[in-house]
């Protein structure tokens, strides 16, 4: 259904599909009071539930339908919608069966995307919020939230990470959720190979997903900029030569040779993986990094790392061609 179209005419207009092509799908309540038809799939649900949850359906159902002209199935009016049957199945299961949402736990991205799309279109605030809560958690827009985040606790999906992040980027563009993009692009730079950045992924529901050309370009340029900045900002503490902090700390450091060697070793471990450098610019401090340095150097390195991450976080959106955080948060 398109809310901007005449709701009355949508309810009354018989559709050309022949009856034999129509499939009945779950949820189908025998005592349901309305048929939702998406493509050639029908669901039987309750007008009352849709009315309570969606102001759009409330308005639609408040218009009396002339019974002589209404399209009926098993005595129920048929509402034709232009969305996918898969999205409607998730939404009706959530609204009529309390599935997916009752425990506030993790959801697959397909369910989250359906909640976001239909929640926004039909103003089903509860489902829209369920979707945003999970996306905002996994793709945070403050450094503090980013540090608190534990991966894969709100979005659980066994598909490849690349296809998941690409779909989040697609949703962020479609729904004007630009605050999700800096971290989504960062995940691409940190964890997704160049081959996959340009790759296409087949989803279980038959959809194919790939990054748009602009997003591919943003990821490649962002990767280059993050790799170039990571040794100057977050991991500057790994530089022994020409680093004024270490020069100043010579007297306080209890084992200068050991600490220099520890930093050289870490530098190799963190950046040198295979033939190309590793992008890990927005990686938070790992307590393991401090264990081979003396206490003074370890504490100083941790503090330098944190201060530099704060600076890099501030610049993160602009590295990916977006306006600054202030502007993004105003949206
Ligand atoms: Zn030291």
UniProtKB/TrEMBL annotation:
Residues 1-12 have a biased composition (Polar residues). Gene3D superfamilies: Potassium Channel Kv1.1, Chain A. Residues 30-62 form the BTB domain. Coiled coil: none annotated. InterPro entries: BTB/POZ_dom, SKP1/BTB/POZ_sf. Residues 1-25 are annotated as: Disordered. This is BTB domain-containing protein. It comes from Piloderma croceum (strain F 1598).
